[in-house]
Amino acid sequence: MNVQFRPESSTSTSIKTAIADCDIHPARATNDELHPFMAKRWHAHLQTYGKQAYHGMMEGPPYPKAQPNASRRDAWPPEGGPQGSSLSFMQKQLLDPYNVALGVLNPLNSGQGLRNHDLAGAVCSAINDWQIEKWTSRDKRLKGSIVVANEDGVAAAAEIRKRAGDPNYVQVLLLSRNVEPLGQRRYWPVYEAAAEAGLPVGVHAFGFGGNPLTPSGWPSFYIEEMVGHAQCQQTALASLVLEGVFERFPKLKMVMIEAGFGWAPSLAWRLDKHFEKLRSEVQHLKRRPSEYIRDHVWWTTQPMEDPERREHLFETIEWIGWDKLLFATDYPHWDFDEPSRVLPAGVSDANREAFYLGNARKLYGIT
Amino acid sequence: MTSPIAGGVDCDLHPAVPHLTSLLPYMNDYWQDQVTTRGMTDLVSQSYPTNSPISSRPDWRPGQGKPGESLADMQKQALGKFGTAYGICNPLYGVQMVFSEDMQDAFCRALNDWLAREWLDKDARLRGSIVIPTQSVEKSVAEIERCAKDKRFVQVLMLVMGDMPLGKRVYWPIYAAAERLGLPIGVHAGSAYHNPPTSVGWGSYHIEDYVAQATAFQTQLTSLIVEGVFARHPNLKMVMLESGFTWLPAYLWRLHKFWRGVRMETPWVDRAPAEIVRSNIRFSLQPVDAPPDSATLDRLFNHMQSDELLLFSTDYPHWQFDGDEVLPPGLSPDLVRKIMIDNPLATYGRLKMKETTP
Asked: Smaller CB count within 10 Å for chain B: N or C?
């Protein structure tokens, strides 16, 4: 991920076999792009009060990124605007050279995690319209994610139901860090509506919910925030399992996005081990935690763990299941995983196909 | 199963304070008066509710009182049972939860004196950890220096979930004192509950808090490494106690990857994270969060790429294993010796094997 991409390498690498990219971040060239999709009162509100999140910064993230917009330095579109804001440049830099057959859009900086829940809902709904207008209607390889203001579960469920059945969307998108752990009941309307619509719920790393980023308070550095997504995602997933979300919504599928997957086996073992002794506390669970995880959870690959010895990676994937990983680049972000380099030699053709494309097609129902 | 060998070091034993009033003889008049006139209750932490199944193995649970309260039980069920040469006592009494640094300080001093008088004085195999009032670094250093005069104190004890990440520079005088006095810093599972017990807020269940302990250790390791604690204190050892360890390899793969990517942010981190872990960080054995098949465990040990990281522990009286199966299946005799004897002796400089080996 820290490879410096030479200008020629970013566009000249071509991949013959089609792939799915399950984590692409589309950006707005300017915030005005959302205005056509929002009531006028919210334009004025944003102008006057801005977006107030569960942290103190009016602009930008509390932990400064390592590069502008956390993006590749070669990803600025030639026509201007931030990285990821130009469809034609995305086609040229990502979709065409890497032969992306299915690209899943995960819009960040949406309305999620805003303290004003009405504003959050208005911005999310605008982003959902904007995804069709600017992206999915113009390139059929791209599919959108329904972003929702999940702190207001009822309104979020209404937004999902409004979009249900629209083939432009393939999932509902949440962030991992919220006001409460994701298994809490305030979020159940989201899961109910998503399961009803047959849409997986993606949980993307990031967000701010007002909780310190570690159980010992706020860390100092961006690297701690980044590495820490794996811990946030583990606790979010443990919460989903232990609250009985998968018992309550047996058709629900979850995708853990951009927080690694190497932690999954150890988390499942730990949950199982202590569940054996503490199951009297969680009598609503009918199965072992690892069984819910095995049946209901998928992981995107980027940023791919890369141990010194590749057999360690293969063993870890075996413990999770080759059928549960979804390839992702995280374009246009700096820690982009280059499709031709992430999977070392020695993987069977069937597993390789599942990893790069088959699992995503199956999960998202794209033939 | 793998049989334990005699002469080992049990690095995680939990003697229980029967009640806050048990510490009164070790407090001055002012604090005795505070405790009694204010009607203070016992400091039992939510991390280990007394009657929770994990707080005591069923066959170790006493007829009355708290699990771990009786020295005779500990001698019979842990020290004698496993032929232990040294047992390190890590009291988990909830003194860290109070919010006044003065009160925390008084309670820590009382707890440390109680441990010396009521446990260390009564069994020559026992060693102690110095519990410190981390809300005041100055008072923590003073308590370390006070207790360290007693060579039976072999480590400083902190909780994995406190007020701030452990790498923060404000804590460094604690680490300087520990390094100077030859004391590793033990970081034990448990929370002061001054922050929500997970990175994403308050969950609903005891099992949720307990499972989340592993993630708290992960964030603390990141903090300790990237803040540069071990660049400043290369001889300081830290021991993660009751942390689990099966998460370590994948955690390090991720940390290493990001360190390579953004190391310009923390240029003082002069070695790769895995290298720092191998030289400065150790982990107690229990709980072994892995499936019980020896093949998977064998692969996990392989992923750890070192046989020096683990230190034997029973986690007595917590319920982490049944019967005599304190060691996971399939360990080689060489690894058993390392885990039970060599690694702890290399970690705890104040343990002198010769004194008690016949």
From this structure: C
Length of chain A, in residues: 367
B322 inside 8 A of chain A by CB:
no
Considering only CB atoms, which chain A residues are within 8 Å of B162? 216-217
CB within 8 Å: B165 and A220: yes
Question: Is A135 in the B-facing interface, judged by CB distances under 8 Å?
Answer: no
Domain boundaries, chain B: 80-314+323-351
> Which residue from B286, B256, B261, B296 is spatially nearest to B273, judged by alpha carbons?
B256
Out of B194, B260, B287, whose CB is closest to A273?
Answer: B287
Which residues on chain A are in Cβ contact (under 8 Å) with B227? Answer: 220-221
- At residue A15, the pLDDT reads 59
Tell me how far apart the alpha carbons of residues B299 and B317 are, in angstroms, rounded to a whole number: 29
Q: Is A222 on the interface with B (CB under 8 A)?
A: yes
- Does the beta-carbon distance from B303 to A273 stay under 8 Å? no
Interface of B with A in 72-101 (CB under 8 A): none
Q: What's the gap in Å between the CA of B13 and the closest CA on chain A?
A: 19
User: Omega into A332 within 30° of 0, i.e. cis?
Assistant: yes
Which domains, ranges and CATH numbers included, belong to chain A? 17-364 (3.20.20.140)
Identity of the residue in B216, B262, B290 whose CB atom sits nearest the CB atom of A215: B216
Going by C-alpha positions, the residue among A261, A365, A335, A355 that lies closest to residue A18 is: A355
Q: How far apart are CA A141 and CA A94, in angstroms?
A: 12
CA distance B169 to A221: 13
Count CB atoms within 10 A of the CB of residue B232. 14
Query: What ipTM, to 2 d.p.?
Result: 0.96
Query: What is the rounded distance in angstroms from the CA atom of residue A292 to the CA atom of residue A295?
Result: 5
Q: Are B315 and B322 in contact (CB under 8 A)?
A: no
**Measured between alpha carbons, how far is A303 from A301 in angstroms, rounded to an integer?**
6
What tens digit of pLDDT does each residue of B74-110 get?
999 999 999 999 999 999 999 999 999 999 999 999 9
CB atoms within 10 A of CB A161: 15
**CATH number of this structure's domain B80-314+323-351:** 3.20.20.140
Calpha distance A90→A75 (Å, rounded): 8
Say which of B194, B197, B262 has its CB closest to residue A223.
B262
CA B355 to mean position of chain CA atoms: 24
> Long-range contact list for B22-26, CB < 8 A, 24+ apart?
B22/B114, B23/B107, B23/B110, B23/B111, B23/B114, B24/B110, B25/B114, B26/B109, B26/B110, B26/B111, B26/B113, B26/B114, B26/B117
Nearest residue of B to residue A306, measured between CA atoms: B253
Round the average pLDDT of chain B to a whole number and report it.
Answer: 96
* CB nearest A312 (choices: B216, B227, B249): B249
In this prediction, the residues of chain B whose per-residue pLDDT falls under 70 are: 353-358
CB atoms within 10 A of CB A66: 18
pLDDT tens figures, A288-312: 999 999 999 999 999 999 898 989 9
CA distances from B32 to A149, B21, B110, B140 (A): 52, 9, 11, 21
Best CA proximity match to B215, nearest among A267, A281, A67, A87: A267
Give yes or no for A273 touching B (CB within 8 A): yes
C-beta atoms of B162 and A213 within 8 A? no
CB proximity list for B339: less than 8 A, separation 6 or greater: B285, B310, B311, B312, B327, B331
Q: Which of A216, A242, A306 sits opposite B162 (nearest CB)?
A: A216
